[in-house]
Amino acid sequence: MSDSSSDSISLDVETIYLGGKEHIVRTRYGSVSVIVYGDQEKPALITYPDLALNHLSCFQGLFFCPEAASLLLHNFCIYHINPPGHELGAAAICSENPVPSVDDLTDQILEVLNYFGLGSVMCMGVIAGAYILTLFAIKHKERVLGLILVSPLCRAPSWTEWFYNKVMSNLLYFYGMCGVLEEFLLHRYFSKEVRGSADVQESDIAQACRRLLDERQKMNVWRFLQAVDGRPDITDGLKTLKCRTLIFVGDDSPFHSEALHMTSKLDRRFSALVEVQACGSMVTEEQPHAMLIPMEFFLMGYGLYRPNQFSGSPRSPLSPSCIAPELLSPESMGLKLKPIKTRIASKMHGA
């Protein structure tokens, strides 16, 4: 996408993603693609995806789920912020541009909010994107209403993650988006059931993700990986958060222990954990229906709700009987949010 002297380019061509419109916003840290969908008079929900993903490969499962889409789009205008150079059709970022840090990426988010004239926003991030939005919430508390985090990180990389990151970094630098690297990334995102095995075919979700990974510019992914790999521990900053936080993590996620650690450090009055059985890191793609009821109760604390015509939809495999009773109590996900360890087993893998 070509640069111009203006601060932003609003493309008239509607993207394939739910009719959203793409804006290229220029910031001090380079241009960033933002897909805007919905009524901009509504409160804002911003999203940020994980490494090598964009709004399409990280959030389409959730937003293509009719019940979740009705809940979120009824209450919010969605601003999908893509990591630099991760949008569909992105060109390679100039090698002379400095590699951003996670602090640079959070400052870039602030510039995006200011460009659109947004005040306080709801945030939804996945893995590395969850870390960046949490750091943003720590640095700019007045700009964040709440956090919905999927398999979040808050510590510096463990030795295991550091090793994986180094291997991925070398593969990207020398070989690009090769098959071995894709296997590393799919392991990061999905459960064994979705990834398949010698006896079980790879799922449609994994195949679709693999095709989208093939489109990534290798050095753009490498730059984001350098930022993620160099992230500092922000555990102490969690204690200063004032907003409510809802955390989802799959039992099979490589970052399961990270999510548990983060939950243990958050203010117990304003945070809740939902563990999803037989699911990897990307609950948004693998079991989006498992997010529906917890999000409904979480948003009720803000006076937000799902349209009545979608209530009790037979398309959702979840019913109140699937949810721990304490989650459905009046205090559980509202103004007096309790710490909850809820286990959800979805019957619709890859829904």
Automatic annotation (TrEMBL):
The chain crosses the membrane at residues 115-138. Keywords: Membrane, Transmembrane, Transmembrane helix. The keyword Isomerase does not apply. InterPro entries: AB_hydrolase_fold, NDRG. Belongs to the NDRG family. This is Ndr family protein.
